[in-house]
Amino acid sequence: MDKFGKTAQYIAYGRYLEHAKGDKALFQDPYAQAFAGDFGKEFMEAIATQVGTTVNILADYVAIRTKAFDNFAVEAVSAGGCRQVVVFGCGGDSRSHRLLEGVRVFNVDLPDVIDFRKTILEPRPQVIEVAADLASPETIWPTALTNGGFDASQPTLWILEGLLMYIPPTDQVRLLQAIETLSAPGSKVVGDVFNNAYMTAESGQPLLTEWSKWAAPPRTDAAIEEPETFFGRFGFDVEVKGYEHDDLNFGLISEEERAWWAEHPRVPGEEMPRNLHFFSR
Ligand SMILES: C[S@@+](CC[C@H](N)C(=O)[O-])C[C@H]1O[C@@H](n2cnc3c(N)ncnc32)[C@H](O)[C@@H]1O
């Protein structure tokens, strides 16, 4: 697994820890442990030690994001009317196997990640794995989607979870332009981005320094300050949520932290480190 795919193993370990809560878990992900491997565990433990937090707190953030996007995806393919789902930078995402039924799912990532996925997820007729570099001037994935039965006349849910912070700005724009071209009315986006302060705040540097020893770090130039404006350029009306939103954090963050975030609501342009979650309205 290259330095990008390794980031997916960290996230998979967070999902595994939530899964391991059993009856108390927000979701079950029976594939997460295999995706994480030993590396995902070692990586998350090293980050926790280095930045003076606990693995459980780091894992909770992963669980919150997973559950929020799970809920959105289920709604989008049922009441929302999306007939197909494309998961960009899918890493160890197993929604095609554990969550989504009755729709075609396209999982897109770098070739070695797709190869790794094929050793873990059993093949299914409705699930198409697509190897593509999304940070390349060659946009090969739309053809692969079409060959796999993608229908541009039907609404699509596009998932961009934990991806855009690794993609240079020109490639972000190219990706969104292609998405816009392929989006029938009713299509939706969901995902997350980091703002500038997340990348540059002094308080965040120990984490980023440690992270870069283990895997590809997020790119400073990939920060997106206002997802509303960014996605609006490509025809998507999005709502942005942070951890202060109760329907995002599922009570998993402490009362103190929740209160702190509630007192520091997101203001576009405000210099506070944020992981901004965006959801089509
Ligand atoms: C932090 S992981 C997130 C994985 C998954 N979305 C999740 O939330 O579990 C980032 C993923 O983006 C993928 N990625 C990064 N750069 C990419 C690129 N240029 N083209 C395709 N995938 C890329 C990585 O390989 C990795 O699987």
From TrEMBL:
Any one Pfam family here would be LCM
- Mind telling me what this protein is named? Leucine carboxyl methyltransferase
Question: Which family would the database say this protein is a member of?
Answer: Belongs to the UPF0677 family.
Record keywords, A-Z: Methyltransferase, Transferase
The cross-references to InterPro entries, in alphabetical order and at most eight, read: Ppm1/Ppm2/Tcmp (IPR007213), SAM-dependent_MTases_sf (IPR029063), SAM_mthyl_Trfase_ML2640-like (IPR011610)
Q: Does the keyword Methyltransferase apply?
A: yes
Q: Which PANTHER family match?
A: S-ADENOSYL-L-METHIONINE-DEPENDENT METHYLTRANSFERASE YKTD-RELATED, S-ADENOSYL-L-METHIONINE-DEPENDENT METHYLTRANSFERASES SUPERFAMILY PROTEIN
One GO biological process term is: methylation
Task: Please give the Gene Ontology molecular function terms for this protein.
Answer: methyltransferase activity
**Keyword check for Methyltransferase:** yes
Look up the coiled coil feature and give its residue ranges: none
